[in-house]
Amino acid sequence: MTFLKNNNLTENTFVFFTSDNGPALIDRDIAGSNGPFLCGKQTTFEGGMRLPAIAWWPGHITAGTVTDSPSRITDILPTVLDFLGIQQMSNVTLDGVSLGPTLLNGTQMKEPVFFYRGNELFAIRYGLYKAHLWTWTNFLWQFNEGIDFCPGQQVNDITTHDQINCTQEPKLFHLGHDPHERFPISANSANYREQIDIIRNILRVFIESLQPAEPQLNWCDNASMYWSPPGCADLNKCLPVPQSNPYKCVWDH
User: How many angstroms separate the CA atoms of 24 and 31, rounded?
Assistant: First the structure.
């Protein structure tokens, strides 16, 4: 940021600061905080997925403005293309929309947010409603060994240690009234039926538009790890980078 200011680049540079997931609560004292939200990293509950973000572009984005309009990491590319005045290719469908209307004009956006865990779609948020199609924290044997994705938090039939299929009757929460995901809306209520119908239609359109591809997270490469971080030479702690050898990952969680 200092470089941008010192070189008079602030009005020509869009900065978006955020993270890719919530705190890794399994690290306990050094994990960070999930605030009032449920669970942490590696889950699709709010504590694992909901993050703050800062957008900065002097002369374009009004300083000090705040929005609670949800967005997704996949919105960043369409946003940058929009700001550059580049039209998307007609034969390419991007997973996201431009945040320009929200960032520049304060427009509230209402786009669905899809919560994946591995290759499985676990939840969908639309507006303030979030439907869990699956529930799962981690395996019971991991929990018994001290690996806890939701320390001090337990919600019956929600923070399960088995991967429970709820697609026939999703667990529905109103994140405005219940951001902690503690009290699912009764499946017998008219509100539940109305909102689930809306979300099921969103799901149907989404599934029909999907184009299967190889998940990028299925590949690992030890050479990409952080072997020589800044300052390691001063401590004589730099490590040699191994030869690149991509291989299929095994993800326990």
Answer: 5
% of the chain exceeding 90 in pLDDT: 73
Query: Which residues in 186-210 are b (16+ Cβ under 10 Å) and which e?
Result: eeeeeebeebbeebeebbeeeeeee
Q: What is the pLDDT of residue 13?
A: 95
φ, ψ of residue 235 to 5 degrees: the values are: -100, 0
This prediction has a pTM of 0.84
Question: Whose structure tokens read 């060994």?
Answer: 145
**pLDDT in the model for residue 118:** 81
Specify the pLDDT at position 212. Answer: 75
CA pair distance 25, 40, nearest whole angstrom: 6
CB-count burial class (<10 Å; 0-12, 13-18, 19+) for 149? buried
- pLDDT of 62: 94
Task: Print burial letters for 21-41: b (CB count within 10 Å at least 16), e (below 16).
Answer: ebbebbeeeeeeebeebbbbb
